[in-house]
Please model this.
Amino acid sequence: GGVWRRALGLLDDENAYAVPRVLVAACGVVTIGMLVPQTMFWGEWEVGTIATLSPASDLPHVWPTTGLIGFEMTSWQSCLIVGCSKLVAISFTVAGGYRGGYIFPFFSAGAAFGRALCFVFPDLSPVLATLCFAAGINVAITRTALATSLILCFLAGEQFAVPAVLAASIVSLFATSYVPFIKSQLARSDIDYSLYYHKNREPKVQDSTRELHA
Model:
């Protein structure tokens, strides 16, 4: 949002530049999609292709499926490119004011990062890697560790992966609690209470001891 506001001057409280902002966002998303076709659309149908490293020809709703340069996910570098490109595409859609959520787009980016990690550590389970990364990225924004873990695992049909995915979600929740990523992101008062020590609100050991003896 800051880049759009300072460099392009397209973000304002009166929304006077809505049409130019949408056009710029569309150009960004389409350009990324032509180079890396795995980043196209919402991600609900594309995430399966990304998570299984299927060829670009299996992508639904994309034509030509190979894009302009015939991009394929065949190495950790190409998987990393897909994940980063998807995050950039998400920023274009959010800043451009397009309707729709970012949960499934984050799942797609997380799946790409998980597959990149599997190239580095071949013994790592692709299912756990993709699910944990997808959950971690989504929790960093939505702050919903338990709901994200349950929904993601049950949608993928991997109910036994809930403990590992929940652990990744909790780590993401506490690791990113200091960083507000988007303007509309809600704060979690229960998390703030767990992270910070409040001298005036914390019970003193001496007071607790007196209550026990009383």
Q: What stands out?
A: The mean pLDDT is 80.
